[in-house]
Amino acid sequence: QVQLVESGGGLVQAGGSLSLSCAASGRTFSNYAMGWFRQAPGKEREFVAAITWSGGSTAYADFVKGRFTISRDNAKNTGYLQMNSLKPEDTALYYCSTTARRTPSWISWYHKPDGYDYWGQGTQVTVSS
Q: Nearest Cα to 51, choosing from 23, 30, 26, 24?
């Protein structure tokens, strides 16, 4: 079992920044790929960003490219999502997720919620206009 705890959400004005953290415990974090997803009220959970086990590869949803940066520190068992130039439409509950799966290829599932086995409780991000 892996336990994930997100933090760093809050209320920010449009154009501002927030830095989310995802603290993992229970297993060797470096064995787990990580993803960030978000869910706004009345909408489905959607992919935001993903990073491989070593951090060597990253991927982003088109709507966050150039604004958000995903990273990880395996020594600290923590993943991060730096969010800049925030927009009101970024308002949502943000979740981190992990999985130890290695097959099929990461590129085929990193953007799918069912590609991940463990989820945190989420942290709320609210962007005011």
A: 30
Distance from C-alpha of 30 to C-alpha of 56, rounded to nearest angstrom: 12
Strand duo 118-119 + 33-39: pairing: unpaired
Tokens at 38, concatenated: 């978000």
With a CB cutoff of 8 Å and minimum separation 6, the contacts of 3 are: 24, 25, 26, 118
- Write out pLDDT tens, residues 40-49: 999 999 999 9
Which residue in 114, 102, 127, 92 sits closest to 6, CA to CA? 92
- Output the DSSP codes for 13-45: ETT--EEEEEEEESS-GGG-EEEEEEE-TTS--
Query: Which pair of structure tokens corresponds to residue 98?
Result: 């992990």
Tokens at 118, concatenated? 């463990």
Q: CA 88 to CA 113: how far, in whole Å?
A: 23
Q: Which residues pair with 21 in a beta bridge?
A: 7, 80
Those residues of the chain that have pLDDT short of 50 are: none
